[in-house]
Specification:
Blueprint lengths: L1 H19 L8 E3 L2 E4 L8 E2 L5 E9 L2 E8 L7 E4 L6 E2 L4 E4 L5 E4 L5 E4 L13 E4 L5 E5 L4 E5 L7 E2 L5 E2 L4 E3 L2 E5 L5 E6 L4 E5 L19 E4 L4 E4 L4 E3 L9 E5 L5 E6 L6 E6 L15 E5 L3 E5 L3 E3 L9 E3 L23 E7 L1 E3 L12 H9 L6 E5 L5 E5 L5 E3 L6 E7 L11 E3 L29 H27 L6 H14 L1 E2 L2 H7 L6 E5 L2 E7 L5 E7 L8 H13 L8 E7 L2 E7 L7 H4 L2 H4 L10 H21 L14 E3 L5 E3 L41 H16 L16 H14 L16 H14 L9 H9 L13
Parallel strand pairs: 26-34, 37-41
Antiparallel strand pairs: 1-11, 2-8, 3-4, 4-5, 5-6, 5-7, 8-9, 9-10, 11-12, 12-13, 14-23, 15-20, 16-17, 17-18, 18-19, 20-21, 21-22, 23-24, 24-25, 26-27, 27-36, 28-29, 30-35, 31-34, 32-33, 32-35, 38-39, 39-40, 40-42, 41-42, 43-44
Helix pairs in contact: 4-6, 9-10, 9-13, 10-12, 11-12
């Protein structure tokens, strides 16, 4: 039976590829013979018949160009295929040409052929060949007499797969050291192939093929992305876009951080939104921080060195870290080390909590004590550390090479690092380079714990004294590490070149860096103010070419970073893209001037349409917001927050969710504004975000803000609950009063909502201006969700749960009952 199912899948994939791939006889924009100079890069070399794709010269750096294919509607011209991605040509004198012999070739300024289709090699001169760009994005050199392709870009992908482009055992997607390919066991995998070490990291290497939901019994080795946003592979890999459906331009790309993502093109803005990703945690990719390096998400990517280790190259984290002390006691040709019973120990161990290094184990032993595991590593000259997990079986993993390291609050074990006896655990030399981070107000401290006090397994007799000593040491180390972190972050260190190159790659595809003079001119000296909030004022601007944008001038006390830190944080914002988030087009960072350039959302913010005209002033809609639009806005906002919290891989907490930060398009699609600005807030002494600094707007702030407890994503859930209730009632919750004229308190609000839920009488709560024109089932669901959002934070639902609940009622009639 299983064989029939697998065979059926292979047949389905083959049929799908035949149905989706257009016939080679389809009319395309075709050239029989032509050439183009790089100086004419502003115009394309070819455009597909339906105008979806263009090909020509793309800027790849200062005076450097590639010959590439891109989506015409993408204003940033993100390449989906490049002939010479790794060997850009000069911006002067280079030329692409299609000869009468049927060869497509790219020549550099000195006439050297950098790349060619090799369509004449070994066949003599071939006359009558043409080059065309298909509506699928496939660049084809074909023979019109036979209708066959002699060469096609679909068979030579770079880092991107397009719909209808078959991915086979002969093809591979590559980005830096990372690649997607079919392995010899017929499984689709992602590989880190670095200068020293190579390792597979997707699907999860700790699980079997079948535990990962794959099969290796189908040798066809074929995968394809269809037009509806479904990616299928013969090994049973299946991925679906969150915006599943026809009519959307999509691509799958492997990127410089090792993740494989599916993108959808927003036809109105030309921006890309991530609609699926292979890795839910960035540190699952291998090699990001190099040998002896630790990858951590806090919630942005951070690389750091182990205690007592330092960066090999301060410009490139991929080269990892090196010890500042001799490691091990091995020497070639020497005798085995003396028995520990007769020789004093030369090393000790310190604990690095909630940390592990994947792979490179010197062995694996179960059901042993901590002391036995420690002794195994102590007596093995090749062992540099060991991992011990006391989960009922006492698992021991001695490590020879420390690679693919990560630290996570969810990891149940620790690494015990072998260091010399004279190693000073109270002041380890820790190197840390933070990438851009997005967090709400809580200061997150990485605690690296010295555990040289351990002599036997934790929990053994006589060890409790050591634990009390450990607690005292921990308090001292906290102070030392905070001071070390402050020194490092405040020192003038440049961004590592490898990271900067990655940042620039993101910025090239997503951003434009503006000068202050440009934005001052685009806004007519900041003349037309669209709105103002705690983070700064927003102005209407018009860029060269006529594009209307919104320019946010950040307040001086909102961002205090230097240009480099601001640059790195903006790259994180640039990776965040969703249909329900306001798109960021660029930024400016010149000394005290910090500005963000957003897409212009023409229908203003939700508060101007939802509340009474007396509250908002001029420019407000005088028409009552229809129920279908209210529900659409609620669902869109929920989806946007769910993306920020769960899908965008940056774990962004908004911190100031309110109607003013929900912008509306002409069709009343919701777009969340001002996400990510929490990380740009003023720092306390440079050591981290001030714990006592409350963010948000009165009336929408969760109770825990006043309790000085660590902040998490549930503050946004609370704020969304308030906004959701306001969408139902049509007025500010903070403006509601008791009969005595006192403002309603949270317990009174939740009590009233429980009464509505218990009685089923939602009519009395819904905005009277709707005159009964609403869907009672949708309204009741919104009230239930709002009530759940106001519970104790541990009881609140996630935004992902909320989005799913609202989606379940999305296809109902606008108002099947309660007519006026």
């Amino acid at each position: 039976m299983a064989g029939l199912v697998i065979g059926y899948l292979a047949v389905q994939l083959s049929l799908m590829s035949l149905l989706l791939c257009p016939s080679s006889s389809t009319a395309q924009h075709t050239l029989g013979r032509s050439s183009m100079s790089v100086e004419d890069h502003a115009r394309p070399f070819l455009v597909s018949t339906d105008g979806s794709f263009s090909c020509g010269f793309l800027e790849a750096g200062d005076n450097a160009f590639t010959f590439s294919v891109w989506f015409t509607a993408d204003p940033n011209r993100t390449a989906v295929w490049s002939a010479n991605r790794d060997a850009p040509v000069n911006g002067r004198g280079s030329r692409v040409s299609f000869s009468r012999d049927g060869e497509l070739a790219l020549a550099d300024t000195n006439g050297t052929t950098v790349w060619s289709s090799k369509t004449t090699a070994g066949t003599g001169n071939r006359r009558g060949l043409t080059v065309s760009l298909r509506d699928t994005g496939n660049l084809v050199v074909g023979d019109p007499s036979t209708g066959l392709a002699v060469w096609q870009s679909f068979e030579w992908p770079t880092d991107t797969l397009l719909p209808s482009q078959r991915f086979t055992k002969q093809t591979k997607l590559v980005a830096g050291y990372f690649s997607l390919y079919f392995d010899n066991d017929n499984v689709l995998r992602m590989l880190y192939d670095g200068p020293e070490i190579a390792s597979i990291y997707w699907p999860l290497p700790g699980l079997t093929v079948f535990e990962n939901g794959r099969t290796n019994y189908n040798s066809t080795r074929i995968a394809i992305l269809d037009d509806a946003g479904v990616f299928l592979s013969s090994d049973q890999t299946k991925a679906e876009a969150t915006d599943l459906g026809l009519g959307i331009k999509r691509r799958i790309t492997i990127e410089q951080d090792g993740n494989l993502r599916m993108y959808s093109l927003n036809a109105s803005t030309g921006g890309w939104a991530v609609t699926w990703s292979a890795l839910k945690q960035p540190c699952q990719a291998h090699g990001l921080c190099g040998k002896n390096g630790l990858c951590e998400y806090l919630p942005s990517l951070r690389c750091s060195c182990l205690p007592g280790y330092e960066m090999v190259d301060r410009r490139d984290w991929r080269r990892g870290c090196k010890p500042t002390f001799p490691v091990g006691n091995c020497s070639q040709g020497s005798a085995p080390p003396p028995s520990p019973a007769t020789a004093p120990p030369q090393f000790k161990f310190i604990e690095v909590a909630q940390t592990d290094f994947f792979g490179f184990d010197l062995g694996y032993t179960e059901s042993i004590t901590f002391k036995q595991c420690r002794d195994q590593c102590m007596n093995n000259c090749q062992c540099t550390a060991f991992s011990y997990r006391l989960d009922g079986r006492g698992k021991c993993y001695p490590k020879g090479t420390l690679f693919n390291g990560f630290t996570s609050a969810n990891f149940p074990g620790s690494i015990y690092l072998k260091v010399p006896l004279d190693f000073n655990a109270s002041s380890p030399r820790v190197s840390a380079q933070r990438a851009a981070g997005l967090a709400c107000g809580a200061n997150v401290t990485v605690v690296t714990v010295s555990a040289d006090v351990y002599g036997m397994a934790p929990g053994s007799n006589g060890q409790w004294t050591y634990f009390f000593v450990f607690a005292g040491v921990l308090g001292v180390l906290d102070i030392l590490f905070i001071a070390t972190g402050w020194w490092f972050l405040s020192s003038k260190q440049s961004i590592p070149s490898s990271l900067q190159a990655g940042y620039k790659m993101v910025m090239t595809s997503q951003f434009r860096r503006f000068t202050y003079r440009e934005l001052k001119g685009a806004t007519a000296n900041f003349k037309e103010e669209l709105g103002r909030g705690g983070s700064g004022a927003v102005y209407r601007g018009v860029l060269d070419g006529g594009k209307v944008v919104a320019v946010k001038r950040l307040a001086v006390d909102v961002t205090m970073q230097g240009d480099e830190e601001f640059w790195s944080e903006m790259t994180v914002l640039g990776r965040i893209n969703h249909i329900n988030l306001v798109r960021i087009w660029g930024f400016c960072s010149e000394r005290k001037h910090k500005l963000l350039v957003y897409e212009y959302v023409e229908n203003q913010s939700l508060d101007r349409h939802l509340f009474d005209t007396a509250e908002g002033g001029g420019g407000m809609s005088t028409t009552t917001l229809a129920w279908k639009d209210r529900y659409k806005i609620a669902l869109g906002t929920a989806r946007g927050l769910a993306y920020l919290h769960h899908e965008c891989l940056e774990w962004v907490i908004h911190c100031d969710m309110k109607p003013e930060n929900i912008l509306l398009t002409r069709d009343f699609d919701a777009k969340i504004a001002d996400f990510g600005l929490a990380k740009l807030s003023k720092r306390d002494g440079g050591a981290g975000v001030e714990l006592t600094h409350m963010r948000g707007t009165s009336g929408y702030m969760a109770p825990e803000w006043a309790l000085n407890v660590p902040i998490n994503a549930k503050v946004d859930v609370y704020s969304f609950g308030i906004v959701l209730l306001e969408i139902v009632v049509g007025s500010r919750v903070a403006d509601q009063r008791t009969e005595a004229g006192e403002p309603l308190q949270l317990p009174q609000i939740t009590q009233a909502l429980r009464h509505v839920v218990d009685s089923g009488d939602v009519m009395s709560l819904v905005d009277a201006r709707l005159q009964g024109q609403f869907n009672p089932r949708q309204a009741m669901e919104m009230v239930r969700i709002s009530l759940a959002c106001m519970e104790d934070r541990n009881s609140r639902p996630t935004m992902d749960d909320i989005a799913k609940s609202l989606t379940a009622f999305d296809d109902e009639d606008e108002h099947p009952a309660y007519h006026s």
